[in-house]
What does this fold into?
Amino acid sequence: MTEPSSRPLRPQADAGAYLGSEDEFAVETMPDGLQRDEVLDSMAEALDVLPADPGAERRVDGGASPNPASAQSQALDSGALDHTQVQELLYQALETEIGGQLVYEAAIACAQNDDLREEWGKYLAETRTHETTLRETFERIGLDAETDSPGRRVLRFKAAGLVESMERAAKDGGPVAAQLVAAECVVEAETKDHQNWELIGEVAKHLDGEMAAALAEAYAKVEEEEDQHLYHTMGWARELWIESLGMPAVLPPPEEEKKVTTAIGAARAKAGREDMLDEG
Ligand SMILES: [Fe+2]
Ligand SMILES: [Fe+2]
It folds into this structure.
């Protein structure tokens, strides 16, 4: 673990937008033993890693307002890819899969519905396979899977926070509340996981050679499972909330019954839930 840096944090307005205010961030020692200053520093470093405007360096017009046509032509040129940021995406994808397993283990412990417990058990197994797929991909493209980054440290902190949220809900709120919190925590974790893989798929299209092939093959293996993890769990979170409010719920949710794998499919499934209730 690195020593806390003496480098000043970014201005409060920036850090606050991401972290909440200092007062809200009252826990001195985080769940995995990280010190608060260290975590704040990692987050500030991560914000530095992310370009404020990813297109700014690549624009040819250099103007204050983006030119969509020139931005698009630059983005389609694989030479314009920021390879350091591509590596950061892959490191974050690996860390998300590692943290996702901790999130699923805690969520399964909170599950009350048998179908949901079974579904999350399947997703946990798939998440373990995704970690393996990424480690094999790293080996193939010559990337060290153990290289740490500020972004990875932030993701470890976030996973620990999700696990602690579920443990607190189980302790203070009881089983129904804990299951709802668990569904929301899985949605949060899977939103990041899903986006990582979407971006990996996009990056693969802008690369050539072995790296393009390695990323495209990994993406093809994982993509549909990530769609299910996110859209189906969003359905569970919604229907479990509806049930908790005393209204008729569709369980398992329509997204799972209809094996939804796209955002538009999820929207259709949600819109069709009333019909499923009528069919009963
Ligand atoms: Fe995954
Ligand atoms: Fe996932």
User: Anything to note?
Assistant: The pocket of fe (ii) ion (ligand 1) is lined by residues 97, 100, 127, 130, 193, 226 (CB under 6 Å). Residues 32-47+74-279 form a domain with the Ferritin fold (CATH 1.20.1260.10).
